[in-house]
Design a protein that fits this description.
alpha+beta, Jelly Rolls, seven-stranded mixed β-sheet, 3 helices, 7 strands, elongated
């Protein structure tokens, strides 16, 4: 490469660096450290009752409200104890696909309608060695999606049609 070309490349890199610095300084683009920052999670308690209004179990959840929190989900949570989980609320009921990308443990993925009733409960295994989990997907319809440790729903005899109440206080 000749000297003129090297100088042109260096000049172009300097212009790009200056443009990015200006974009971050003016707030047009978030700083690199915040691109994947999920921020603080709100918390709630979820109570699940059967059709006779008998409480079958409660779950302490973190609420993934932002787009980034929903993308990361539980993948950065090293362990998930029984009685805890994550809730993913949406503006409207719709089809949602959840992927086990980067997960270290299996989950029950619960799709809850806008009426508070469980529409579907899907079990998902943790990815095996040398798997990224992208091919382990579960799809369901709901306004809310609840993730808890796999087997938690069955151990509490919770089934499709049971009611979910979310207490954010």
């Amino acid at each position: 490469m000749n000297r003129g070309r090297v100088l042109n490349v260096l000049f172009a890199l300097a212009v790009v660096a200056l443009a990015l610095t200006t974009a971050v300084a003016t707030g047009v683009v978030p700083p690199p450290a915040t691109l994947f920052d999920t921020g603080e999670y709100d918390h709630a308690e979820i109570a699940i009752t059967n059709n006779c209004s008998q409480e079958l179990g409660t779950v302490d959840v973190r609420i993934a409200e932002s787009r980034q929190q929903k993308i990361v989900g539980l993948s950065e949570t090293p362990t998930l104890r029984n009685g805890s989980g994550m809730l993913f609320p949406y503006d409207d009921s719709g089809d949602h696909t959840y992927v086990m990308r980067g997960m270290d443990y299996p989950l029950d993925i619960v799709f809850v309608g806008g009426d508070g009733r469980i529409n579907a409960i899907e079990s998902a295994p943790a990815p095996g060695p040398n798997q990224d989990g992208n091919d382990i997907q579960r799809t369901g319809t709901g306004k809310y999606v609840l993730e808890v440790p796999r087997g938690w729903m069955e151990s509490h005899e919770i089934d499709v049609g049971h009611s979910v109440t979310i207490d954010r206080s």
